[in-house]
Amino acid sequence: MSVSEERDAKKMKSANQLLTTPNLLSFSRGIMGPVAMSLIVTGSSTALGAALVIMIAAEFTDFLDGVVARRYGLETEYGKVIDPVCDSIYHLSVFVGFVYQGWMPAWMLFIIYSRDLIIPYIRTFARQTGIDLGIRDSGKIKTAIHAFVQIGVVGLALHLLGPAQLLGFETSSLLLMLAAIASIYSLVDYAMAAIQLEPR
Fold first, then answer.
1. Which of 3, 106, 197, 200 has the most CB atoms in a 10 Å sphere around its CB?
2. What is residue 4's predicted lDDT score, i.e. its pLDDT?
3. What are phi and psi for residue 162, nearest 5 degrees?
């Protein structure tokens, strides 16, 4: 095989690793984020109902991509990057819609965005020490809480879930505070893990 043929074969292999079923599910979730945000910004009951359906579908893809990757041996290095990136795009898009509607203060979005911006740098720092700081349980917990909170807030806006007031506070505000706390917890966990790494 010539050098050019070997190079073409490597490119084809890389493309095949990129366009796996789990990665395509992750990509679809990334696309659903801006769509859900646009519907939330519209603000009508019909648009919010459609947003809720899309959000539930997006969270299902988050569950499904991991199951498919593990079951069929389709876990790739690309997937380890694509999945959390698409999670961030999706969840941040929805939170931006919440800020636009006045459901969420900007400082909460700043905390959540900062966590998703900083952690990739922490993981890069870890790789420079020779250690792959993979997705930690705190990251999975954060993602699950964000999913619960976002669906809950839209459900409350549609009067489909629970009381508007809880313990003297807006229920949606309590949920969003939980999302911010989950982001802070995850950021601290990753930072502590990186600090404790020993270079190889």
1. 197
2. 46
3. 40, 180
Q: What is the DSSP letter of 161?
A: S
Phi, psi of 166 (to 5 degrees): -145, 120
Given this structure, which CATH class describes domain 3-195?
mainly alpha
pLDDT digits (tens, 9 = 90+) for 95-115: 999 999 999 999 999 999 999
- Alpha-carbon distance of 183 to 185, in angstroms, equals 5
CA angle 51, 95, 57 (to 5 degrees): 35
Report, in this order, helix, strand and coil percent for the chain, each rounded to 5. Answer: 80, 0, 20
Contacts of 32 (CB under 8 A, 6+ apart): 54, 55, 57, 58, 61, 90
Residue 94 to residue 161: CA distance in whole angstroms: 18
The count of other CB atoms within 10 Å of the CB of residue 177 is 15
C-alpha to C-alpha distance for 87 and 79, rounded to whole angstroms: 12
Separation CA 185–CA 72 (nearest Å): 33
Query: DSSP letter string over 3-32?
Result: HHHHHHHHHHHHHHHHT-HHHHHHHHHHHH
